[in-house]
Every structure is written in structure tokens, then in C-alpha cells.
Specification:
By secondary structure, this protein is of the alpha/beta class. The protein is built from 13 helices and 16 strands. A seven-stranded mixed sheet has the order 4-10-9-8-7-5-6, sandwiched between helices. Strands 11, 12, 13, 15 and 16 form a five-stranded antiparallel sheet that branches. 48% of the residues are buried.
Length: 450
């Protein structure tokens, strides 16, 4: 980027030619970003933002980590690209490092360009492995924007693309704060959610169901950590009925929850894990599926009917190798766990006490959500489900207050998520919590009795 380039020029070019995702094109005003480092990014006017969104919860290692940047540069000088059919040292090493960290025998890695394609291929593998077609997924979920992934998704982004014929059945996952099962304790929520899933399986026909896919910890839908015993219970239901268990770790994997994979918190091994985002902090697009021995064996002598031109792209794999090794060397996964337990958890608990707009705080590691409400007693959301325009004004005002103070938030529906890089320091985390504390006064104005 040449020194004379201005933010206005960058924005003008963007508005002239870039078609943005999930947006009404005439109604958006993208920030022109000049640079980024660590937990911060900045615009062309020198405004600096603490990135409490990790972009799309993917810059787990922070912006512009020098070890990863160097690895990409060195790989580009050596070998930029090669088709997936060849054996490439950096691709094999990335696969080995990932397989070492996955639970159980998930030792084969199929590389994709991102998380949605990982979900597409995991579902395809499950259907071919079982000879069945149906896939069960939860409401309050997001699995990607491609054909199968968007139909699996439980949030409103599915609605415009829902074919109603994709072989997908949705069910309710556990979420005690807004329990669909009238539960009053985590144990009740777990028991009733599993009973609901067992009934769904029974009435759909176990022999018709290829897979159940869950986010280990749902991300964009609200960071609802599952109650103890739930994932193990789903594992048992899958085993009992010959169903493939897929855990979507696209957002929760690679240190985000204070473990390499969130499933480790509950000691559960699925048949397939989908990943992306944090595997190389998004420096070069990369995703994949970690595959169990049994499913891999299905395709030992039978061709797997799927592939991508850029599967295991050398630049992306070099970034993954550098990211995983650096996370290990610098204790970044442990840092996420420590900052979550010692700084974010108590800090958010104190914030919740001070603000009538904060109904619940939940999360772990560097993966947290605040449920914003109009009334703590009734738990009425600060804005209605899937609100837009004037109905969403309270959340829009809150987000604007965050940005005005130098905090870049992750806001979805009536929630704000606290998802800084896993490299975030104690000082940075406290700075972000202080800015969040201040901005929540805007949300408080919309609460009962305000």
C-alpha cells in the first residue's frame, strides 16, 4: 500500500466494485482499515480499535504474528501452489499437527478452503458411510452458507435459502437461560434435551438418519456451553442408532475455549470434526475435516467423490504449521484459558452486577457472550429475535458506542460476544472490559424502569 492512499479512496473503490456478504449493499458503510497488529487494527485516520471480535472469531493468534507471516513468505518463495493429488511436505505436516491434537482416532485430515466446505464434506462422508440421508442439527446454530451447511444452520440466515427438501431435521439443543424444556437446573436441561433428541430420532426413524451435527459450543448463535453430560449423551444416542456424530469446531477449535478443541472439556470423541478459522488464524483460507478410522476405511478402496482445487493449499498449510507450532511454543492455548478464568469471567460477572441490561454471562477461554435484556426478571431480549431497522436500534446504538470508544464488538441479535484473540494480554482484556462497561450504559437506557 503506497503512503498517499487515503481511507476515502479505499472506501470509494470498495463501494464501486465490492459486493459484501450478508448485506443490503446500499445501506452499509465499511470501515477502511489501514493496518493491524496483535489485538488491534486501525483506520487511515489513526483511529485504533481493540479487536474484541477477532474479526469473525478467527484471528486466534492475533493480527500479523511475525512467525506466521514469515512462514507464508518463505513458503511463497519455495512453492506457492500444487494440486491436491501430490504429496507436499507442508501439507503432510499440517495434517500431522492437527491429527496430533484431535481426540481419539481422528487421524486423517481432508482439507477444504473454509468451514462451510468442511461441513459439506463431513455430511457427504456421513451419508456415504451410512447409506442414509437425513442429518439432524439444532436451532440456534450456524454451520456455513453453502448448500448443505446453510440448510443445517438453525438461525434466520437459513430462511432465504431453505429448500425444505435438503434432508435436514432441526431440534432444540440445551440452553438453560431460555430453556425450551422448562428446566430449572443444568442437570434438568441436560436430561430433558437428551430425551427430546431421543424422541426426535425415534419419530424420524433411526435407520434414516446419517448424522447429528452440533457445534461443540455454539458460536454466533450465542456461546451456550453445553451442560455436563450432554455431548456424552449425544455420543451414546449416536452409537445406539448407528448415527455418525459430527462436531463443528470451526469457531470453537484451536485454543478459543482454552483447549485445542472444545470437545476436550467434556472428554467426548466424535466421528468427524470440522475445523477452519483458528487453524491458521485466517491468514490464508483453510478448513478441513478430521476423520475417524472407521469412516476413513469406507474410502480405502472406494473413491471419495469430493475434492477442491485448493485443498491443502501450500501457503495455507504453511500458515497452519506456523500457527500451531507458535501456539504451542508461546503457550497461547493456556493463555486463553487463564485470561478467561482470571480476567474475563470475573470482569464480566462484575459488569453484569452493575448493568440492568445484562441478563446472563456465559462462556469459557476467550469465548464469551452477554445476553442483553430489557428486564432481568422476565428475560425479555433487548431487541426482538432477528430484529432489523428501528426494532434493532438499541443494539445498533450499543455497537456504535463501543466503536466510538475504540472497542470493536461482535454483536448478534440481542447479544454482544467477548471474543478477543487467544493471545490477548491481561492489560488488553481489562482495557476491553472497561470500554464494554462504559458502552453498556447505552443499552441500560432501554431497560425496564430506565
Amino acid at each position: 500500500m503506497t503512503p498517499h492512499v487515503t481511507g476515502a479512496a479505499v472506501k470509494a473503490a470498495d463501494r464501486a466494485h465490492v459486493f459484501h456478504s450478508w448485506s443490503a449493499q446500499a445501506l452499509i458503510d465499511p470501515l477502511a482499515v489501514a493496518g493491524a497488529e496483535g489485538s488491534y487494527f486501525w483506520d487511515y485516520d489513526g483511529n485504533r480499535f481493540l479487536d474484541f471480535s477477532s474479526q469473525l472469531v478467527n484471528t486466534n493468534i492475533g493480527h500479523q504474528h511475525p512467525k506466521v507471516v514469515t512462514a507464508i513468505q518463505e513458503q511463497a518463495a519455495r512453492l506457492c501452489t500444487l494440486a491436491p493429488g501430490f504429496a507436499v511436505d507442508v501439507r503432510s505436516e499440517a495434517a500431522r499437527l492437527i491429527a496430533e491434537r484431535t481426540p481419539g482416532d481422528l487421524d486423517k485430515i481432508f482439507f477444504t478452503n473454509g468451514g462451510a466446505e468442511a461441513v459439506e464434506n463431513a455430511v457427504r462422508m456421513a451419508r456415504l458411510h451410512t447409506g442414509r440421508q437425513k442429518v439432524l442439527s439444532t436451532y440456534r446454530s450456524y454451520h456455513g452458507a453453502t448448500a448443505a451447511a446453510i440448510n443445517l444452520t438453525g438461525d434466520p440466515r437459513r430462511w432465504p435459502s431453505d429448500t425444505a427438501a435438503a434432508g435436514v431435521v432441526h431440534f432444540w439443543g440445551p440452553f438453560l437461560y431460555r430453556s425450551p424444556f422448562h428446566a430449572t437446573t443444568e442437570a434438568e436441561e441436560c436430561e430433558r434435551a437428551l430425551a427430546h433428541l431421543a424422541d426426535t430420532i425415534a419419530f424420524e426413524g433411526p435407520a434414516t438418519i446419517a448424522a447429528i451435527i452440533l457445534e461443540s459450543v455454539p458460536g454466533t448463535a450465542g456461546i451456550m456451553t453445553p451442560p455436563a453430560g450432554y455431548l456424552a449423551g449425544v455420543r451414546e444416542l449416536c452409537d445406539r442408532n448407528g448415527i455418525v456424530f459430527i462436531l463443528d469446531e470451526v469457531m470453537s477449535g484451536f485454543g478459543r475455549t482454552g483447549k485445542w478443541f472444545a470437545a476436550e472439556h467434556w472428554d467426548v470423541t466424535p466421528d468427524l470434526i470440522t475445523f477452519a478459522k483458528g487453524v491458521n488464524s485466517g491468514y490464508v483460507p483453510l478448513g478441513g475435516v478430521a476423520i475417524s478410522a472407521a469412516i476413513a476405511e469406507t474410502f480405502a478402496t472406494r473413491p471419495y467423490p469430493g475434492g477442491l482445487t485448493y485443498s491443502g493449499h501450500p501457503l495455507a498449510c504453511a500458515a497452519a504449521v506456523a500457527t500451531i507450532n507458535t501456539m504451542e511454543e508461546e503457550g497461547i492455548v493456556d493463555n486463553a484459558a487463564r485470561i478467561g478464568a482470571e480476567v474475563i469471567a470475573p470482569g464480566l460477572a462484575a459488569i453484569a452486577e452493575r448493568h440492568p441490561s445484562v441478563g446472563e454471562v456465559r462462556g469459557l477461554g476467550t469465548f464469551w457472550a452477554l445476553e442483553l435484556v430489557r428486564d432481568k426478571e422476565t428475560r425479555e431480549p433487548l431487541v426482538p429475535y432477528n430484529a432489523a431497522g428501528a426494532a434493532n436500534a438499541p443494539m445498533a446504538e450499543f455497537a456504535a458506542a463501543c466503536k466510538a470508544s475504540g472497542l470493536w464488538p461482535f454483536v448478534n441479535m440481542n447479544r454482544t460476544h467477548v471474543v478477543p484473540p487467544c493471545t490477548v494480554t491481561e492489560t488488553e482484556a481489562k482495557e476491553g472490559l472497561a470500554l464494554l462497561d462504559e458502552a453498556l450504559s447505552v443499552a441500560d437506557r432501554h431497560t425496564a424502569g430506565a
